[in-house]
Design goal:
By secondary structure, this protein is α/β, with parallel strands linked by helices. It has 3 domains: about 260 residues, Spore Coat Polysaccharide Biosynthesis Protein SpsA, Chain A (Alpha-Beta Complex); about 190 residues, Glycogen Phosphorylase B (Rossmann fold); about 140 residues, Glycogen Phosphorylase B (Rossmann fold). The chain is built from 22 helices and 24 strands. Helix 5 packs parallel to helix 6 and helix 9 crosses helix 21. The protein is elongated and about 110 Å long.
Amino acid sequence: MLTIDVFIDFSRMPVDFELQAAIARLNGSEFLGCIAETITCAAPSSHSRPGGIRQSGAWRIRTTGPVEACSRAMAAAADAERPLLVLLGELEPGCEALGLLLEAIDADPMIGFALPRLKGSRDDSLARLDIGGDRAVDQFPRRLLSEIPDTYLVADAPARCLLIKPVVLANFGELDERFLSVAGALWHYIGGARRCGFRTLVCNRAVVTAACAARPCPPCAITLRSLPEADCLLLRQLLPDIERAHEEFGTGAVAPAETRLARALPQAYGRQPSLLLDVRNIICGMNGTTMAALGIGGGLHALGSDWEVTLLASREACTFHRLEELFPSFQVNSRLPERQFTVALRLSQPWHIQEMIDLHNVAAYNVYLFLDTISWDIAYPAPRHLDGTWHFMADHADGLLFNSEFTRERYLRRFATAAGVPSLVPHHSFEPADYIHPDVPPSPGQEGFIFIVGNDYDHKDVSRSTELLTRAFPYHPIVALGSATAETPRVTVLQSGKLSDLDMHRLYAGARVVVFPSFYEGFGFPILTTIAYGRTLLARRSALLDEIAARCAPRGHVVPFDRREELVELIGRLLHGQDVPELPLGTALGNGRPKSWRDVGQSIVTFLTDLTADLSRSRWRSREHAIRQLIAVRAVN
C-alpha cells in the first residue's frame, strides 16, 4: 500500500487552538490515518511544552522553528522515497483528494508538485485559487468546477495544501532557513525546482476542507501579500523572475478567468446578473452611433430590469451628454471597471482588437451590436486591419445584435463564420415620440426649404445631390448637411455632427422636403425623424428602406428614387402639390403600435437572459486561447 509523509504547520494557529483535538481528527481513517507513515507537526507557540500531548506512532511534534521542522520532514521523506504532503494550518484532506493528488504527481515525470482546491465557507462554495480578477468575488459556487478543466499546469504555486514528489525532495535539499515562514521558504523551493523544469499541477476535482472556514475565505495559493515583508524581499532577491512566473505562468494567470466565470454562472451566489454597456465610441455630439447607444441605454434604463447595469463611456462623452443625470440608476464609468460582469455588450461594432480584449477580460459573455458594414465595404475610412478585427469577432463573439435584417444579411455574407453565433435583430425604436424634440413643434406651412441630409462620406452623396438640386431649383432655399459647396446665397451648408440636437430637430421640422440620398445605410435615423415630424422624405430605393418603412407609424411620406436625376422631377412635383409614388408605411405593424426604445431594451434583455442561461454556450475558452496568442505576437512586435 502506498504511503506518504506529512508536515503540518500549526505554528500560526490562535492561542485557543486545541492541538490534541486536531490530531485526533486527522488520525481518522477518512483523513491521514490510512495513508500517513510519518506526520511531523510544528506546534503553535502556546504548546512549547508538548509533554502532556499524547502522540501516536506516526506523529512527531516539533517545537523548533516551523521552517526547520519542515526541512527535517522533507529530508526524512526524501530518504524514505515517499511523497510529502505539506499542510499550512488546520486542513482536513480526505482520502479521495489525496488519491487524486498522488495520481497527479505520477501523470508526468516533470510534475513535481500537486495541490487541491479548498472548500469555501459553505458546503456549496469553493475558495478562490488565487487573488486577482474581480475582488468582490471572494469565493465561487461549487458548480464552477463543471466549467473549468480537470487540472491547471502552473508554475510557482505554494499552497496551503501541497504534495511534493519524492524525486524533487531527493534533488533539491531542504528549505532555506533564512525565511521566517514556511510559505515563503516553500515558494523559494518550488521556484528553484521550476527553474529546473518541475511544474505544479492544480487538481480542480480534488477538494480539501479547512477545519475552520473563515470569511473572507483565503485562497488556496499563498499570496505574496500574506508573507512577512522580509520573506518578500528575500524571495525577490533569490527569484528575480518571481512576479513574471506567477502572473504569466502561475495561478495569477488563472484567477481572473475564474472570477469572470463565477460572475457568469446563472444566479451565482444569489447576485443579480450584471451588464457592462460599452459606449466608448459615442462622440461629443449627435450621430447615428450616439443616437443608437443613448436610445438603447434609455430603453434599458426605462425598463428597470433585474440586471445590474454599468455604462462605460469616455470622460468627454460623459460630460457632454450628462450621462450620470440621464441614467441615474446606472453606474457610469469613464475607465474600464476593475470588477467583472455577466455580459459585456458593446453598442456598436468594434474597430480594434484591443476593444474586444478589454471586454473579454471583464465578462465571460461578449456581445456586439452591429450598426452597418459600411466602413469595411468602402474601405478608405476603415482602421487598419479591420478585416481581421471583424473576423475575430465572427469567430469569438458569444452573441450578435443587428439594427436591421439588412445589416445582418450584409455581415453574414461577408463574415460567414458568424452564422452559428446566436443573433437578434431588435431594430431601433420606431416610436415617433422618440424622434421629436419637445421644444420643436412641426411646421404647419408649405414654404419650407429643401433639406439634404448626410455627412462628408462619399456614400452619403450629399455633394453631388446638392449640386444637382441647386441648379434645378435656383430660387428655392436649400440646406445641406455634409460635404457640399454653397454656390448661391440660397444654399446653406452645415457641417454634420456640429449642430446641437435642438437645431437639428428644427431643420427636420421646418423642411418642406427632406432628401436622404445615401447609397448605403444600416438603419437610417433620418427616415424616422422625418416621418415623426410628418414631413416628406425622398430616399434612395433599397431593401433597407422597405424594411424600415414597413415598421414606421403612417404619419409622414416616403418617396423612393433610384437615380439621382429623378430627384428633380419628384421634388418639382412635390413643390407644386402634385402626387408622387410613395412607399406604404406601417405594413408590418398590423394592429400593433410601433416599437419604442423600451421595447428594444426588453428584447435585448430577453436575448441576454436566454444566452446566459447555460455557461457552456460561452465561447470564452477559444477566445482566451486566441487572445493569448495575439498578445504573444504583439509582445514580439
